[in-house]
Design brief:
Elements: H1 8-19, E1 25-28, H2 35-44, E2 49-54, H3 57-70, E3 76-80, H4 86-89, E4 94-100, H5 115-128, E5 129-139, H6 144-158, E6 165-170, E7 181-187
Parallel strand pairs: 1-2, 1-4, 2-3, 4-5
Antiparallel strand pairs: 5-7, 6-7
Length: about 190
C-alpha cells in the first residue's frame, strides 16, 4: 500500500509537512525523544528555526544527540523548561506548533503533560502562530490525566472563534479505547 492512514501522529505529520516551508520557524512543545523536533528541523531546512521544550533533562539530551547525529543541530534551540513559558522564550511568530501530549516513552510516567499547563501553552502558541499557520496536538486519552486533557482540550478548541481559526478533530473510530487522537488548528 503506497499510502497508509495509520495513526494520530501520522495525521499530525501530514499537516506539518504541508504547512512548513524552508526558512520557517516552528515550535515543538513536547520534545520527548526528539522525533518531532528532528522532523521540524528537516522541514524548515538550513535557514529555518525550531524552538523545542521539555521539562526533563533526559529528553533534552536525547533530542540534542538525535539532532547532532542528523546534522541539523544548528537549526534548533532546546529549552529544558515547561512549555507554559513559551511566550517569554520564542522571539518570533511561527508557522507551526506541535504538541505530543503524555509522558516520555521509556521514561517516568508520573511526568506527564497536565491540562493546566497545556492550556497556558496553547494560549501562547495560538498567539505566536502566523496567519495560515497550524497547531497540531496528539492527545492520549488512555490514562486518567490523558483523558481529562482530551476532554478539556476538546472543550477549549470547540470554543475558538471560527472567524479566526479552523479546528479539526480526528480519531480512528474502530481503534481500541484510549487510542490517540489528533487535533488540528489553522489560524485564518
Ligand atoms: C509523548 S512525549 C513527546 C514525544 C516527542 N514529541 C517525540 O517526538 O519523541 C511527551 C513529553 O512531554 C513532556 N512534558 C510534560 N510536561 C511538560 C511541560 N509542562 N512542558 C514541556 N514538556 C512537558 C514530557 O517530559 C515528555 O517528554
Amino acid at each position: 500500500m503506497a499510502y497508509e492512514l495509520k495513526s494520530a501522529r501520522f495525521l499530525a505529520r501530514e499537516v506539518l509537512e504541508k504547512a512548513l516551508a524552508p526558512g520557517d520557524a516552528a515550535i515543538d512543545a513536547t520534545m520527548g525523544n526528539g522525533h518531532d523536533t528532528l522532523f521540524l528541523c528537516e522541514s524548515v531546512g538550513p535557514e529555518g528555526r525550531v524552538y523545542a521544550f521539555d521539562l526533563q533533562p533526559a529528553a533534552v539530551q536525547r533530542t540534542e544527540e538525535r539532532l547532532r547525529e542528523a546534522g541539523v543541530w544548528g537549526r534548533a534551540k532546546l529549552f529544558c523548561l515547561g512549555h507554559e513559558h513559551m511566550r517569554e522564550q520564542v522571539p518570533e511568530p511561527v508557522r507551526a506548533v506541535v504538541f505530543n501530549l503524555g509522558w516520555l516513552p521509556g521514561g517516568d510516567h508520573s511526568v506527564t503533560t497536565r491540562w493546566e499547563t497545556t492550556h497556558e501553552a496553547l494560549l501562547a502558541a495560538l498567539d505566536l502562530l502566523l496567519p495560515g499557520g497550524v497547531l497540531v496536538v496528539c492527545a492520549y486519552p488512555g490514562h486518567p490525566e490523558g483523558d481529562r486533557e482530551r476532554l478539556e482540550l476538546t472543550a477549549f478548541l470547540s470554543g475558538l472563534s471560527n472567524r479566526v481559526y479552523n479546528v479539526l478533530h480526528q480519531r480512528f473510530l474502530n481503534a481500541s479505547p484510549g487510542a490517540p487522537e489528533c487535533f488540528t488548528v489553522q489560524k485564518l
